[in-house]
Amino acid sequence: MNSKRIRIASAVAAAALASVALAGCASDADPEAAGTAPADPTSLVLALVPSQDQAGLVDTAAPLTDFLTEELGITVTGVVSKDYQAAVEAMGAGQAQIGFLPSLQLWQANDRYGAEVVLQTERNGNITYPGQFMTNNPDKFCEDEPVERDGKLFCNGADALQGPAGLDSITKVKGSKVAVLGPGSPAGYIYPMLALKEAGLDIDNDFESVPVTANDASVLAVYNGDAEVGFSFWDARDIVVKDTPDVGQKVVVFALTDEIPNDGVALSKDLSPELRARIATALADFSNTEEGSTVLQSIYSITKLAPADPSSLDVVARAAQQLGLQ
């Protein structure tokens, strides 16, 4: 990945405007550099990706789109993409101008379509997170007695809540049914598959993949016994605990991947620098309100939106390259 191509917008409007303006001068082919900045649209589409069940996601995000509409004076509509890659392609095709994207797709949107990565998320003060291996068969995968933390069970040191942990145990995945998200998911596919590959498993033949569409579906596949093992972000069990209060006892986390850069927000290059700066500022401001924090928590478990660090996406690009997912 050429990280120089990623341009950061500060959460502060003045700094954001300055950084975008400087980046706009970097290429003679850029219409902004030629003094022909794009005209701003009369409406914007915000693309959401299904990290959990799609049902109701647009309604959950309504306070966010309403806030942006009021702050920007432009109607903002939320849509749920069918999967991670669809959101990237929607931005490339001009069908969406704002994308809440996982780290791989942030890199792809920038690398393929020149989208500007403006913000990355914080969760409880952390800017990275591990993918987790979950099981309903701790006797097989746990090399020690599971321990309880916040009502949920962990083993093999995974209760440290920071990766990597317990990866010596993942060779036992061989022969299992495994709930797997699509190949665009860092925590639901890329990092767990990379860990299995590096552990010596043939990721095409050594286990049976059970395709799932979202992280909560992976948890439920393990909970319901449709798969013996599942992949997800940490800790996706919290998404389903309301409907399955015993999920933390029946679904045990036995390993954590290396840390993954948090997801974030990308903006279409077709928007003017001024509008991109205003959107970045509005989103950061929204995340700093009590209501905004609550809404972002309910959408993606986000506690805050902060200025992006483009270099953090290099590790995702390297992982994708090893799995042929560029």
Q: Could you tell me the radius of gyration in angstroms? A: 20 Å
Kindly report the spatial arrangement of strands forming the biggest sheet. Answer: 2-1-3-12-4-13
- Sheet having the most strands: 6 strands, mixed
Query: How many beta strands in the DSSP annotation?
Result: 13
Question: Approximately how much helix is present in the residues?
Answer: 25-40%
Query: Could you say which overall geometry the principal axes of the C-alpha atoms support?
Result: globular
Low-confidence stretches: 1-34
User: Helix segment count?
Assistant: 13
| Structural class estimated from helices and strands | alpha/beta
Written as H for each helix and E for each strand, in order along the chain, the element string is HEHHEHEHEEHEEEHEHEHHEEHHEH
CATH class of the largest domain: Alpha Beta
CATH architecture of the largest domain: 3-Layer(aba) Sandwich
| Overall structural domain count | 2
Distance between the termini: 10 Å
| Mean pLDDT figure | 85
CATH superfamily of the largest domain: Periplasmic binding protein-like II
CATH topology of the largest domain: D-Maltodextrin-Binding Protein, domain 2
- Beta-sheet strand percentage? 15-25%
Produce a short descriptive summary:
This protein is α/β, with parallel strands linked by helices.
Detailed description of the structure:
The protein has 326 residues and is of the alpha/beta class. The protein folds into two domains: 3-125 and 262-322, Periplasmic binding protein-like II (D-Maltodextrin-Binding Protein, domain 2, 3-Layer(aba) Sandwich), CATH 3.40.190; 128-260, Periplasmic binding protein-like II (D-Maltodextrin-Binding Protein, domain 2). It contains 13 helices and 13 strands. The strands form three sheets. A six-stranded mixed sheet has the order 2-1-3-12-4-13, with helices on both faces. The chain has a five-stranded mixed sheet with strand order 9-8-10-5-11, with helices on both faces. Strands 6-7 form a two-stranded antiparallel ribbon. A hairpin with a 2-residue loop joins β6 (147-149) and β7. The longest helix has 15 residues, at 273-287. Residues 1-34 have low confidence and may be disordered.
